[in-house]
């Protein structure tokens, strides 16, 4: 059964809209765990637009499942992560001006830098996942540089409109997952996934974990976090 790690960044987005102290993403993380999620994901961004350093510190103490820290492979973030020791880190590309993560990490282009960063985490026994587009060369390079897992970027898949485009991208995802499994990488997926489109992606049995944020928080505003998380777990288990 594929697992669900809920990204609670956008609970913090609502708080930061007023620079106040509610809603608290740390409290949200507790509720998400009580609803049955397998992990909590947060992205500490360079510009601190949602998650703050305080959230990371408190979540490190409170989260009882698994804390996955999404981060850019910058000097500052690596130091913070090595100090906080999340259960795992997911390396993502980051641009200040983007609304959300745009595209996967180009592990081929940044392979030397990423290799060094991965080694630092491995010295602390922290596994590293690389967020990449479903491209075979990126999958292979992720293995070469020492990644433990890949997270397939489903952002493009989620945005496509026509059946033929969707089928083509689905095939790319499937091929990338197959290649990763052959190389002995753990496989996760995420970005842009919704209650509607997750079952189809979850039909790829080798995907072990989904990282889903915005759609769950959006639904939670309407029906509450507990229901929103439970419905996503159900949607994943429906495996089209
Ligand atoms: N995975 C990664 C690497 C991400 O950067 C994000 C967005 O923070 C997600 C998953 C979750 O995406 P969404 O909020 O669209 O579900």
**Helical stretch tally:** 11
Strand content: 15-25%
Poorly predicted regions? none
Shape: globular
**Total beta-strand segments:** 8
On the 0 to 100 scale, the average pLDDT is 96
Structure, explained:
The protein is of the alpha/beta class and 240 residues long. The chain has one domain (3-238): Alpha-Beta Barrel (TIM Barrel), CATH 3.20.20. 47% of the residues lie in helices and 16% in strands. The chain is built from eleven helices and eight strands. The protein has an eight-stranded parallel barrel with strand order 1-2-3-4-5-6-7-8, surrounded by eight helices. α2 (25-34) runs parallel beside α3. The longest helix has 20 residues, at 163-182. The radius of gyration is 17 Å and the shape is globular. The mean pLDDT is 96. Pyridoxine-5'-phosphate binds at residues 7, 9, 43, 70, 90, 92, 100-101, 131, 151, 190-193, 211-215.
Summarize the structure.
The chain is of the alpha/beta class. It has helices spanning 9-16, 25-34, 53-62, 75-84, 111-123, 136-144, 155-159, 163-182, 198-202, 214-223, 225-237, and strands spanning 3-7, 39-43, 67-71, 88-91, 128-132, 149-153, 186-190, 209-212. The model has no long low-confidence stretch (mean pLDDT 96).
């Amino acid at each position: 059964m594929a697992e669900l790690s809920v990204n609670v960044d956008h609970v913090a987005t609502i708080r930061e809209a007023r620079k106040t102290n509610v809603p608290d993403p740390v409290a949200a993380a507790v509720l998400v765990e009580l609803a049955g999620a397998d992990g909590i994901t947060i992205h500490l961004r360079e510009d601190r637009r949602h998650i703050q350093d305080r959230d990371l510190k408190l979540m490190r103490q409170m989260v009882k499942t698994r804390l996955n820290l999404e981060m850019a492979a910058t000097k500052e973030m690596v130091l913070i992560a090595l100090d906080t020791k999340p259960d795992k880190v997911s390396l993502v590309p980051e641009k200040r001006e983007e609304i959300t993560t745009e595209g996967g990490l180009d592990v081929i282009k940044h392979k030397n830098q990423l290799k060094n960063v991965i080694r630092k985490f491995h010295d602390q026994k922290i596994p590293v996942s690389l967020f990449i587009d479903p491209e075979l060369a990126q999958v292979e390079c992720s293995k070469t540089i020492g990644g433990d897992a890949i997270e397939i970027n489903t952002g493009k898949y989620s945005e496509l409109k026509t059946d033929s485009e969707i089928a083509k991208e689905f095939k790319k995802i499937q091929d990338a997952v197959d290649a990763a499994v052959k190389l002995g990488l753990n496989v996760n997926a995420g970005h842009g996934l919704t209650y509607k489109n997750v079952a189809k992606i979850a039909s790829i049995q080798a995907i072990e974990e989904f990282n889903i944020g915005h759609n769950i928080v959006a639904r939670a505003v309407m029906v509450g976090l507990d229901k929103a998380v439970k419905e996503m777990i159900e949607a994943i288990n429906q495996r089209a």
